[in-house]
Amino acid sequence: MLGKTAASLFWMSRLLERTENSARLIEAGFRIALTHSSSAADEWASILASSGAKKNYLAKHEDYSSAKVIDFLLRDKSNPGSVISLIKQARDSARTARIALTREVWEATNEAWLNLKNALANPVDERDLPGVLAVIRQQSSLVRGAVMGTMLRNDGFNFIRLGTFIERADSTARILDVKYYLLLPSIAQIGTAVDNVQWETILRSVSAQRSYRWLNGSDISALSVAEYLILHRQMPRSLAFCYAQISDNLGYLETEYESEVTSHRLVSDICDRLLGQPVKTIFENGLHEFIVEFLAANNSLAAQIETDYNFQDRIN
Amino acid sequence: MLGSDGEVREPYADYKSWLDKEDTKRLHRKSEDAEAFFRTTGITFNVYGEDDGDERLIPFDVIPRILSAREWRKLSRGIEQRVKAINAFLYDIYHRQEILRAGRVPVDLIANNIAFLPQMIGVDPPGGIYTHIIGTDIVRTGPGEFYVLEDNARTPSGVSYMLENRETMLHMFPELFAKIGVQEVSSYPNNLRRSLAACAPLKCESRPVVAVLTPGIHNSAYFEHSFLADQMGAELVEGHDLMIVNGRVSMRTTQGYTPIDVIYRRIDDDYLDPLNFLPNSMLGVPGIMDVYRSGGITIANAPGTGIADDKALYSYMPDIIEFYTGQKPLLENVPTWRCSEEDQLAYVLEHLEELVVKEVHGSGGYGMLVGPAASKKEVEDFRAKLIGNASNYIAQPTLALSSVPILAEKGLSPRHVDLRPFVLVSPDRIDITPGGLTRVAMTEGSLVVNSSQGGGTKDTWVLEE
Question: What is the pTM of this model?
């Protein structure tokens, strides 16, 4: 497989994952804006920070009004992280890697682009927002379903999965990063109403509010929410789950190519050093420090995968 | 569809009896289905200079264009003769140049032609083949009467439409194909691969590695490039995926550089090699021409084939065919006036309103005058251009092109069509896929079929014997 093709598969799935995560964040923010309008501006600011778009946003807008933030995150073509920009780039990547995709995967991606272009052609009215966000998540699911149902389990499939889980780990860690202060028991006023709303928001932004309750009943504590998002191996958006998947896929690649790579060693190191400790230890050593270190390690891993598999021409 | 007597022509008889029982509403619905199918499949093209990823569909018409087996036999014999002559001509023109010595083609037509590549002089392409793929543009003017409009010997495009149009028709009207025997076109990708692999270079040691070279996703024909690579099971590469390693053109894979044996390039000669041609080209591979000359890679079509389909040379094709095959051409050339010659220019200037005048090096239907369809002012403006640079133009009569109905808003309505069959040339055989790309001028009365000018396409049926 061409290095460029592997890169395109990796980025196609990363960017699709990002559209989905973006839709979840907007959904969580919108809920706060509806129910607790006084804290809406703070919430939007933290959502922009989680998606890494705060600086770009402030260069264009002065306040955090819901309509402006939503439009910026969904439709603004000058924002490279808006859903409309992301889906265009994802579809371009799929076109570049067209010969490595099944017809079903290609068509699902192409239709995702066509449908979102259509859904986002005009400013989204608040009344229509839940519907539009559902379409975004659904399009991403359709592509994922086509990948799982039709692709050969070969190197191409592994690069797609790597892109998905690198992006998802990054997203979950960023959400924790922006909200980490809420998870510090000494500062948070446990048991107040606002507090519960904030827990809900964190869980909601990774679509885990229901699964968390299934597992933990009604006890919400900082420690258990953090543990759930970082270490729970059954929770499909937790850091530990993402890293188990990354490790598996790099392992399949090593077997197929009969050659070991540095990135797989990096994964083992991250799993041992960061994800191998109990949540209590993480809190004792500083949750914020943990997240900063994890985000940096996840970035280095992505760069190492790129090097190991010749995504780019190193001479240029 | 109808003969000059107004009766249904014989190849259309079965189709017409099916069509008569069809409801126009259903046909329109099928037509919409086809459009949706093309859009989700991504069979689109980018229009240069248009905004952000807006892609267009080439209009597809659901009424097929039908040729009888007899018409096809005549056509394919004529095309085969022409293609053989073109390859012999290219070999000659880059070696001993006997046709020039014999005075059958003027020397300065070659020497001063930008399509002639001095870098190819004395080079023997692998398998002796210059034009692995040719798309011959044909028009029909009456029963058994065909003219060749153009021999596309560089990188003819449109074959993906031939294949996808058929797929679409099979999908929409399966019952028709059960009723009417239509010859298959689906073996083209396989034949293409076999034909390219048959011309592997000297240094190829095992099963030839074939790659399609594309300028990338922003090229208007990118869909076709990826489609062909996919269907052939070949790699799809861009210039920046390639590098010369140990004297071979190699592609960057996830496991390091691997040599390529045959490259089906969909970029022009000029962009192929910045060391040998345009120095600022980002699309090609620096040094590929040196590898080519040393037998390390096959380039299809060979560099320099453009000299054979140059419009200035077109009028000499009958001589070229006779010179190399010793036979009279089986297919007619359209009568052509060379504006570079004084008496011929005088005739053209006198009859501008009746003629089609084309730029010698132009393509895509740009920069031409269609006399009968032009306004007085357009004719006069063109006259000035023509006088200013006469040798840049040729002129041809407007032929009475045959027409085939399309499904227009208010029902069936005739439109002019041309036909581009696709030819594959290998050392031991010539394959002409029975069918081809029928291009149709979607505007009533128009003769311009180019997709860049709003032309559409139809499925082309060659009936079984």
Answer: 0.91
